[in-house]
User: Fold UDP-xylose and UDP-N-acetylglucosamine transporter from Drosophila hydei.
Amino acid sequence: MALNMKALLAMIFVFVGCCSNVVFLELIIQIDPGAGNLITFLQFVFIALEGLIFTSKFFTVKANIALKDYLMLVVLFFGANVCNNYAFNFNIPMPLHMIFRSGSLMANMIMGIILLKKRYNLRQYSSVAMITAGIILCTLVSSGDVKDNTHPTLKVDTSFSDFFWWSVGIALLTIALLVTAYMGIYQEVIYKRYGKHPNEALFFTHMLPLPGFLIMASNIAQHWNIAVASETVAVALPVPGVSWSLSFPLMLFYLLCNVVTQYICISSVYVLTTECASLTVTLVVTLRKFVSLLFSIIYFRNPFTISHWLGTILVFLGTVLFANVINQVKDAYQARQARQAKLKTG
Assistant:
């Protein structure tokens, strides 16, 4: 089946939006590693406002999907996002964060077996074993190089070791991984029942959780103050005959770019979920994470050993094997050759 143009554009924007989003996330984390909740909050506010104006038209457009289904989706989505971003508070380096999140295929399979009573073949089980082994290897290697990355203004002496807090971060990433997999399956069920409404789903899943951020208000305020007090940069405005310049805190600029690129990323993923099967979406997102990981290592010079590379290759090859990419490409090529031969003989 030919890939439609809408799905193809969504895939391109997933790579452009999500990869650039990771760059700005890394730049923010380098200034303030504990800014996870602030980042999540700003992303949710931006996407909710955009949806309120353009999708819901200030609640004048009737929702196509039942509110109770959205509430369930919101709990899952909010929980996964908070866990993923909050993990940075617990000494989790960016490369490990991305490798761990690339285990979504493994989590997707576990949830499929438990909830949908799915059965998989030997190839799929083998690929998940490779992905799991890769993540475990990278996690174990990273555990030997744990350091406290807390912002100097928020450091607190505790009786717990850096390794303990790192373990808490790993637990948060594990929870987020399983919740995200369950959310993917739940979204598929909802779309089958109500039809495809990606923009509406994007709006409600970002608008409804906003009151939940009240719990984290003090943490968000702390890290907002850090952002405002960050290094100031001045940019000369190109106004003929006038020497004007605009000054702003560097971290606030990174936050703005992160929020905008997150919107491009997540909206493209939502379009993809309506156009493709859950497995295809998972494959695209996993490949995007692999590209982001490579960029993070090369551009930001994050520490990466031979063991890290081995683990990453296991995750990547396991993903390709699970989705049966090689056979799908081969079948598509053979079908194309058959069509061309038929046209020649016709």
